[in-house]
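Sorry to interrupt, but I need a hand with the structure work. Go ahead and set the record down below:
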Amino acid sequence: MIKKVWMILLLCILFAAVIRAEETGIKIKADARVELMSLIFKLAGAQEYNRCKLPEYDNEVKQYFSKFQDHSVIKMAATLREDGVCFDAVMSMAVHLNNTVELKLIVPPENAVELDKRWPREQIPEFLGKVRDFVQASNFNEFFDRHQVFYQAAENSLTQIIANTGIVPWIDQYIGQTNVFRL
């Protein structure tokens, strides 16, 4: 009986949190482009992308992608990182890609004003060619699709956290109003 009461109470709390999160109007979505760039730089040894706090998922990533450790894009990413392409510069590339199938820049490299300056423009075509090969060789999109339940749990968790912190007005003031955040 006590278990049932606790379960009902927990469901009510979760339901209230979801309703509150939906009231913010913010939609959190996992983004395959972000996951792909994070993964490539993780495999390249970038410390900032090797801080996963979810050991089960981290182990799955390592187990699935370890055989691609010597792929040419991983080696190029390591070199790019040594030359300063790190941290937010990696994400700058991710959000400038159209998707993880074609992997084309939304704007040409020479016109990509918002693309972080640390990306050497002359190396971008070569890098994206190697990324395309990696995506195909590793079946990255299949891996991403198979983990949708995990990504949805992360989306829901972050949506609830944002709703409960009251941070939306600060976000609106700092970066302008938006209703979609990608992780």
About this structure: The first strand starts at residue 27 and ends at 29. Confidence is low (pLDDT under 50) at residues 1-21. Residues 2-23 form the longest helix (22 residues). The chain has nine helices and two strands.
